[in-house]
Amino acid sequence: MAANVVVVGSLNMDLVTRAERLPRPGETLAGESFTTVAGGKGANQAVAAARLGGRVAMIGCVGDDAYGEQLRQALEHERIDCQAVTRIEGISTGVALIVVDASSQNAIVIVAGGNGSLTPEAVMRFDSLLLAADLVICQLEVPPATVEHTLKRARALGKTVILNPAPVTGPLPVDWYSSIDYLIPNESEAAALSGLPVDSLETARVAAQRLLELGVGKVIITLGEQGALFADAQGFEHFPAPRVQALDTTAAGDTFVGGFAAALVQGRGEREAIAFGQAAAALSVTRAGAQPSIPFLDEVRQP
Ligand code: RIB
Q1: Which residue from 23, 28, 33, 49 has the least number of CB within 10 angstroms?
Q2: What is the CATH number of the domain that holds 181?
Q3: Is 119 exposed, middle or buried (0-12, 13-18, 19+ CB in 10 A)?
Q4: What is the pTM of this model?
Q5: Is any ligand 1 atom within 6 A of the Cβ of residue 51?
Q6: What total of structural domains would you count in the chain?
């Protein structure tokens, strides 16, 4: 059966160190452990959507090294359609250098590698996947021209369009907003996009209002321990976060996005889908790593 969720985005091998704290500039710290873990925001969201009930296809690029093959195999293991995961000769696969501290916070440096080769043309070659899908998800770890093409094409095809604007450095092109049904930033991304500070529920409402005014359909700002704020033309709703003991927050946002998308394509209403995404993300932070931390459907308490 054709995929109902298509993810257009990145695949990274995460090189993960745990340390007591994050290093300061110029400082050398002794780490406590080192692991290589399948990651990348696009691939993580694809895995989350697949484990949580979606039929998923991934459009992305890897390099011609062992990491690329391992990442593809990890997705195939989840029954994700990888016909559009292209291996690019002469280039390395994307990597993320991640340090996780004792309080479960992380700092990440990404090197795009193959992700930088995901051109609009590469997405056009697999237009049939977009055509067959119900919902399309993008993030910002691939070239902006590719995100722009995907958002606009998916909108033209009448698909539900999700943009997780991560990582973000500043405002998005204004003409992207009207192609997005659900914009899902975290606090710092919402601040960068709106140009407004976001450090509380109240300031999140103001930023969400600004993003709605830019033309996006609906906004969900994820606020970590403070839960999530949903905003649309009718108003705002706060969804408190389930209480958990966090071990590693890597890919929590990706799990929320994938879980939310999977719930939508299974016919759940958006409020139920938000609560479901939150329940999945809460479980993911109790486990280490990106893709290994993402729960399966039967593990998530149904809201
Ligand atoms: O969102 C978490 C992801 O961000 C990691 O898996 C890493 O690859 C970076 O892309």
Answers
A1: 28
A2: 3.40.1190.20
A3: middle
A4: 0.97
A5: no
A6: 1
Nearest-atom number in ligand 1 for the CA of 290 is: 6
What's the pLDDT score for residue 79?
98
Distance CA 14, CA 35 (A): 8
Closest ligand 1 atom to residue 10 Cα is 10
Q: What is the pLDDT of residues 42-64, one digit of tens each?
A: 999 999 999 999 999 999 999 99
Q: Which residues are catalytic?
A: 254
pLDDT of residue 302: 65
Pocket of ligand 1, candidates 41, 95, 106, 186: which has the most ligand atoms within 8 Å of its Cβ, to mutate? 41
pLDDT at residue 157 tops 70: yes
Q: pLDDT for 208-244, tens place per residue? A: 999 999 999 999 999 999 999 999 999 999 999 999 9
- Residue numbers of the domain that contains 120: 5-11+41-93+114-297
Phi, psi at 125, each rounded to 5°: -60, -25
Best of 70, 98, 164 for a ligand 1 pocket test (most atoms within 8 Å of beta carbon): 98
According to the model, what pLDDT value does residue 244 have?
94
Residue with the smallest CA separation from ligand 1 atom 6 is 39
What atom of ligand 1 comes closest to residue 13's alpha carbon?
8
For the CA atoms of 130, 132, 137, 138, what is the dihedral angle to 10 degrees? -10
Residue nearest atom 2 in ligand 1 by C-alpha distance: 251
| 20, part of any domain | no
Given a cut of 90, whether residue 142 has pLDDT beyond it is yes
**Residue 226's closest CA among 285, 166, 278?**
278
Question: Using the 8-state DSSP alphabet, how is residue 211 labeled?
Answer: H
